[in-house]
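The aim of this short unit is practical: by the end, you should be able to scan a pair of folded records and say something sensible about each. We start with the first protein, listed as its amino acid sequence and then its structure tokens.
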Amino acid sequence: MAKGRERKKAGSVDAGLELVNTGVPGLNEVLGGGLPSLSFNLIAGGPGSGKTTLAMQMLFANATVKRPGLFITLLGETSLKMLRYQQQLEFFETKRVGVDVHFLNLTKEALSGDLEAVLQRIVLEVEHLQPGVIVVDSFRSLVDAREAVEGPQLELEHFVQRLALHLTTWEVTSFLIGEYHENELRNPVFTVADGIVWLTQATDRNSVVRKLQIVKMRGMSIMPGLHTMKLSKRGVQIYPRIPERADDVRRRGSTRLSTGIAGLDEMMGGGIPAGDSVVLAGPTGAGKTTFAMQFVTAGLRAGEAAVIAIFEEHPEVYLARAKSFGVDLNEAIRKGKLRILYLRPLDLSVDETLDDIRNAVEEMDATRVVIDSISGFEMALAPTFRADFRESLYRLIGALTGLGVTIFSTVEVVDANEGLHLTGYQISFLTDDIISQRYVEIEGELRKALVVIKMRGGEHSLGFRVYEMTASGVLMREWLNQYDDITGGTPTRALRFAQPSHPGLVEREVQALETIVRSGPMTASEVEGRAGLTSEETETILSRLVLLRYIHKKGSKYEAEARPSGH
């Protein structure tokens, strides 16, 4: 994967339309590359939706000494009051005020309702400063003031047309700010505007979500839909609803990635196909997080970089738990090979989450991503996004796999013993591979078992296998091929009289032998790791396999003997 892959920048489009950089993260992408230069734009929305901050941020991004920015206030906030709050934002550079950023207050003219006086004052100031960017805030307050004074409607429409003509003649990029509602789209200003940016904010329970929509932008191929918008000390940031793009899609090869768990790779036909999305679904306490940790650790040992997005535990708690299983992730973090994203606010958006993960993946050239867990992710989302959770998750997984990373997600399943539930979110079609965990009662003892439900990348085992959580992580144990009704939670032993495939061998010996047959020559430690054996078991089993001439030792490695067919 190319490191730090650049996103589309403002500049120019094929048709020759010159674009300017908005200076607002994410907005250029939504606009299709940037804002058309010399365009006449309307920024509309309700009170507190971020209109003034958005316009101010674009003005500071494009004002220069040669072509300064001019911010005109009418009947909204006074310049002094507005500056008191705006200067708290990082993009606002106080030293530039009066140099390349200028402010003009026309409250007196606006209160009189004299449209001609307002227009003449704007004309004089523009001729004096020769600005490159102009913002009028709030244009709607001027209209309301005019409507309060008796006069023909045609005069207002004529004023709007004259102002637009002036702004076009002056060759400036302009923004008119107004508090409008959707039922006012027939207003003259909407007709003459080249671009319309609509801002909204909605309160759902205790969560407030701001969104941006480009209703109109002449000459541009905009990204449709509503896009999440955040206000912070840095100013405005837009999180586009990013669909899977053709230039993002990576071709999948035949590479298999280890899960880091001995025995599970064999169940999955050699590991996880690189670029797949894997979901591990299981009940509380089944070890989902430990499986995810070992997936990451396997990648780190192979020299790969990884990103972990957690929603339920604080990073320190997560790291401490990993260390309790003998996995020290702190060193990988210090070396820049691992990044843990703690995403827990209850007003999170899926696009914000995707942006954080995608930035980390691109900065680190990561190949593995863990989402722990989907259940926690849903709870962290603002209520308005939970309503469309499946659609949100579809976009998240699609965009990440488009980057070429392998995704390992965990999800909690409730009432797993009532039949074979998959993910609990009806999102099975979104993922390539599914591993299902469950509790089963065997001979009066509660055991943990798993089965590989689905793998789009090839063949896999269909059997259930018991596993244990040990001090060193997950240890795969015996297959449950002698039991029926495993999915019901209370398996019953069934008599099997199948001809043994390896006469004279017990189950653990067969497990070690098949590992060597599949993987080729292996050292004793490699057999121990992949077959899920202890060191004592490995020594005894390998000696017996050599004695029975199933394998032979060549140097430090063990190889399978070529045996006659049917033996």
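Turning to the second protein, read its sequence before its tokens, just as you did above.
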Amino acid sequence: MNAAAEVDGLSVLDRIAARPAGVQLAAGLLVFGACSLAAMLGENATFDEGIHLSAGYSYLVRGDYRLNPEHPPLGKILNGIPLLALKPAWPADPEIWRKAWQGDVGYKFLFLEGNDADRVLFWGRLPTLFWGLLLVGSVFALARDLYGPRGGLIALVLASFCPTLLAHSHYVTTDTIVAVLLLLAVASFRSLYEVGGYRWSVYSGILLGGALASKFSAILLVPIVLWMGVVSLYKSRAWSRDPGTWLRRLTYGSLTAVLAFATLWGAYGFRQQPDPDRAWQFEWNDGLPWTGVSGRFMEKARDAGWLPHAYIRGYLMVQKHSQEGHQAYALRRFSDVGWSWYFPFAVMVKTPVGALLLYAWGLWTLRHRARDGRGGAEYFILIPLIIYGVLAVRNNINIGIRHVLPIFPLLMVLAGGIELPDRASALFRRARWALPALLLLAAVETLSGAPYFQAYFNAPSRLLGERHELLIDSNLDWGQDLKRLKRYLDDQGIGEIKLSYFGLGSPRYYQVPHQTLPGTNAYTRFETEFKPADAFKPGDVVAISASNFVGLRLDDPGMYLRRFGKLKPIAVIGNSIYVYRVP
């Protein structure tokens, strides 16, 4: 055994960490990319993807921002860029465009205009996969910078085998891009505060503006970077320096703010109106929350021309949604405003046990490092982690762990700081082997659920109940498995079924012959050939999405549980669609 490795106490990890950083990163990216592609190729469009993709494409080819203002445009624009080469047909119905019916536009764009939906979706998803790969690389680089080669390797393994990242890093949504830009922004601001210089000011401004132009939750970056500045000043005792230092700081801050503002405006084409011809305007008198500090500020910003109308409209729509709440489900309960424990619970049940223990170990190590006077370098990781944690507890929209996706890269970086007990401690030998064992456990747990990362739940959580008894919606069933259902029916030689589908996939496009059962069957407005199901008869094959199975948004929430709850399904498609044969 290598003597240096033996002395250090972690021979396996240290030998791997001693390999060239480029080789380690390439291996991690290869694993992450392969797992993501395996999941992506098997899944049809999820609930939001048609809306986001058609909106991004319309921003590019029409220069019009009327669709989907509740999500800023940057990520959607990037997802739409590959479609410029495909030139997909645009929905021919002018009425849905005039009224900005984004759900109709998205559905028709993918499925009803003769476009190859799978091909359009594949190319539209690739930019999100790029953001996922960039996130893995950023976690590795940041942890390596803070804690050295071993820390970088720990963070790289956790990122490459994180089921939540793997699930959402290939969808046309805004969750992954904001996680990447938030992590890069706080790292850039750390360099700006500690090193200074116009280069870091430029990077920080562009990254902050890009995050703000990607998702409205990125507004939290403003208090985050302000608190980072306060902590940095306290650490450096900058108040005792000469006035020239303060003038430089003011200059850097002003440049950063200007670039962030310009980047946000640039995402909207440097135009206040959504329509380039100014012939179409948003409706402002439809119950938007103009009260409160933020509401009054947005009203002033609209009237004074400080912000694009689409940004103001989207922000107020998100605020209204948050105030009104959204039907949530957890542990067999429903709520219109969610629970303070929802996101902590989601993290606990949808994260591999090995990763959870490593995150806890990283936080415990950080506490001891701070107690010994060696802490402080991680303030730029702790501040966003705390602020996002407070947001998670107070958030009224409890529909998916993806809404707290940015906390995972932060936890991975902190896990890179894990230290062993003192060599004289009785725990040293155990801890020496526990660290690589937990990393291996995290990887094996994640791969055991492949390629159904969207529906991943760790093994201990399954002792509490079945997946659909714990969480649903984008934690489990986002409509992603209609394509896999078709493959199963063909393999089994099953003809017509009775279907209750939760999602925005197209049974016509995937040639799923069926009768419709009650559920969120949005496609029935467009595909009228599928008739309502008659009474169940012995031998009928019934497929029910998990979200419908527990009664989400159904007039009779218990209808499927009463009829099929005690039966064993003949198949579970992608862990999200239950298939039964009526006895």
